[in-house]
């Protein structure tokens, strides 16, 4: 007999062991039916003869412990009992003394010394991961499940025909949507724009069968009207359109848009005419907001700036008009050659325009949820005017557009990172992550902590988005009455 690791074979000869095969269950009834059945404590009676005082004091110390210790008998050496000395009759004053030990086993069962496993789950033809184990004992026993992460994961499910245990969060996502400001255009050659010959969304009477091109002065590009197209006795010229790209979720359109551009609008002589428009439209090609600079003064040097907006029904509103002199002087012209900075901004229903050092702002409730999908650049000449009657400069040098409501998808750092180890110990129904107890990881209602005698197949599940499922392993220790 080995007691708590101490081999008593040099101290005792065992004459008889009675492990008590009766009274193993306690039953409760309500007079009609069985309501509860549980294993009771057990007493093992061991009768020995003292053959040596070698180690006797050490043995007494072990037997007098206030907690259970492990007892292993030589006729059943692969199993142990957790017991505590209940009573004894020991007369150690002479060799050959007979001693009777009564050992109380509180749980009433014996346990295998060597656990079975670990058994590793494999993927079946149906795609599921499972492991089949055989409990050759005659009692239900707790299992220990270990899952080692091979990729990010948020959930571990373990189930059989009779129970399930869930760890983590089955609904945890690997990504999240977020809104950010994203620059979708930043250009000084305007190659992202394509020629448009259809209707002008601000005024369909304006003709668009002309062309624009890049001309360079040193290292600076000027996007300008190169061919005014057919004379329609009104504004006519060239139109170019930029289509907003899809955001990170595949959606096209933005409720909140910022645009910076640099424009030169400068008359080299009195009476020159011309028009630049920067327009933004929705998916129906209805005007949402626009920045309009034009000169129709055929005699003097007076230009017009207009802040445009849509009315939500395909129409147009002029929110503000200012006049200015199209000279080269800073005091007269915000669009002279050394300057030309301007911007326009939509934030829901609010529209803001830069004008000569100020930022006029307007609220257009009809546009609150309208999404912009296109930007138009238009260059026009007036009626039959040609040659030096055209503005010396009515050009764009740069443009930047930012989608301030761009939705994107980004990765989330999930609760179980690669190489994380998650362990569930059925004996105490607890979960440990990397060796640390995590009381909140086990999902309420989990009930798969033991396996019955015989063959059991356990199936496993991880997060749907997990790229490489964890390595699942099962261990258990058999027990018998």
Automatic annotation (TrEMBL):
Highest taxon, organism lineage: Bacteria
Protein name in the entry: Putative phage tail component, N-terminal domain-containing protein
